[in-house]
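This week, think about what follows.
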Amino acid sequence: MWYPSHDAEIDRIKESVSCATVLERIGGWRLDAKESTRPALKYRGGDAEILIVNHDQRGWWNPLGEERGDCFTLVQYLRPDLNFGQARCILRALAGVTPSLRNVPRYRQRRDQRRSVAACWAAAEQLRPASPAWRYLANERRVPSAILASAADQDTVRQGKYGTPWFAHRDHAGRLTGIEARGPAYRGFLRGGAKSLFRFQLDLAARPLRVVVLEAPIDALSLAAIENASLSKLAARTLYVATGGGIGPSTVEVLERIFAEFCACGGEVAIATDNDAAGDHHARKLEAIARKHELGVEPARPPAPFCDWNDMVRAMGT
């Protein structure tokens, strides 16, 4: 995005215009309150388009693409026919206008969110049978107890605030980079962390011969359960990883390292994203990364009518 030489009005507009307001007033986009938090507002447009508003509503990014920026770039993303001056005129009228934000949980910065993600993870409870997080994953999500016990032993899942399951994102060296929370009342990433990859393997003692890339950690556990139940010999030698939705630079970096290792040892790669338009987009990006390393890619979509692998597990039962 090109800006003219420094102009004080540009700075004032960027500070006073909400990107959420731009989406509602110009694009006619709809807020997905169920999938939103105050720090990350999810808006949906036509044809399965999704945009996320962040940075106290001063920024935005496209989880299905590479676009991101401020209110000026957002106007020209929505209206590519407008030049910078025309975008400025539109934004002047939106200065100070608040978006609706109906039914979005009120965000309050709690003490645990001011701590580092490592400190938050250390303070979280271990996943154990009969705990609220275990009951949610076992009873509502139908993840088998044997899979949950293995995930607890590997310290990939813990119980956070209000009994919400917390999933660890780690870099290639195994260092914790972020915490993804997915429960009945809240889903999102804890502040201060960064997406990389959630990892799970049924047999840590075995060198993985295959890596399966999914979108959500619960889907990674679900597909591991499905393949393990089918007595597939590959299940124990498979590394199940989840990107947590959008594929950012940190996630790409870790995937590049994993794919390079699998290329060297003759391993296989399966792309098991959701069976929808967003899943199609993620699959194309992941396949492009894998093919850079000359790896063959196995498509592994959940069969219709299931949208994701957890839908299939819940339909099958434990």
